[in-house]
């Protein structure tokens, strides 16, 4: 066994020897070498139970299963629509946390987010009106 490995390494190099050993022992993990974006796309088609099981397989899969883009896709599959307030909440917390929040609490959070966005729009509007009024006053005050 060692003799063959030395011959493969001598002929093809250490990297090829490692790949051959992995193939022979069936320990080569091709999935975890895929780009994160592709893994997220694949995981989006899994059931919740499978996503949770996938997270326990390897560090690469765990990172994939914790990404916001995966949980946003899962949320969309279950809720079909995402409001701007929900987007804002997810940016503050995470899509995973939003997904597992019960519906009553989520409605409360969305309502609070709408109120905050409305207050911000009103404040922005008041600032804009004040700015316009002071500009008009300055123009009319000029000789």
Structure commentary:
This protein has about 140 residues and is an all-alpha fold. About 80% of the residues lie in helices and about 0% in strands. It contains nine helices and no strands. The protein has helices at about 1-10, 15-25, 35-45, 50-55, 60-65, 70-80, 85-90, 95-100, 105-140. Helix 4 crosses helix 5. The longest helix is centred in the C-terminal third of the chain and has 39 residues, at about 105-140.
List keywords for this structure.
single chain; mainly alpha; 143 residues
List the helices and strands and how they pair.
Layout: H1 2-12, H2 14-25, H3 36-43, H4 48-55, H5 59-65, H6 68-79, H7 84-92, H8 95-100, H9 103-141
Mean pLDDT: 81
Q: Output the helix-strand order.
A: HHHHHHHHH
Which range best describes the helical content: under 10%, 10-25%, 25-40%, 40-55%, 55-70% or over 70%?
A: over 70%
Q: Biggest β-sheet: count, sense, barrel? A: none
Q: How many individual helices? A: 9
Counting DSSP E segments of at least 2 residues, the number of strands comes to 0
Please state the structural category: mainly alpha
Radius of gyration, whole Å: 28 Å
Tell me the span between the first and last alpha carbons: 99 Å
Q: What portion of the residues fall into strands of 2 or more residues?
A: under 5%
Poorly predicted ranges (pLDDT <50, ≥5 residues)? none
Global morphology: elongated
């Amino acid at each position: 066994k060692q003799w063959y490995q030395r011959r493969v390494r001598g002929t093809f190099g250490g990297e090829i020897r490692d790949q051959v050993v992995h193939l022979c022992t069936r320990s080569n993990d091709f999935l975890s070498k895929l780009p994160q974006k592709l893994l997220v796309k694949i995981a989006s088609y899994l059931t919740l139970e499978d996503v949770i099981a996938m997270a326990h397989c390897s560090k690469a899969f765990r990172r994939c299963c914790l990404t916001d883009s995966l949980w946003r896709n899962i949320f969309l599959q279950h809720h079909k629509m995402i409001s701007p307030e929900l987007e804002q909440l997810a940016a503050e917390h995470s899509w995973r946390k939003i997904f597992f929040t019960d519906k009553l609490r989520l409605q409360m959070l969305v309502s609070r987010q709408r109120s905050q966005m409305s207050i911000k729009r009103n404040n922005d509007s008041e600032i804009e009106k004040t700015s316009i009024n002071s500009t008009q006053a300055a123009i009319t005050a000029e000789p």
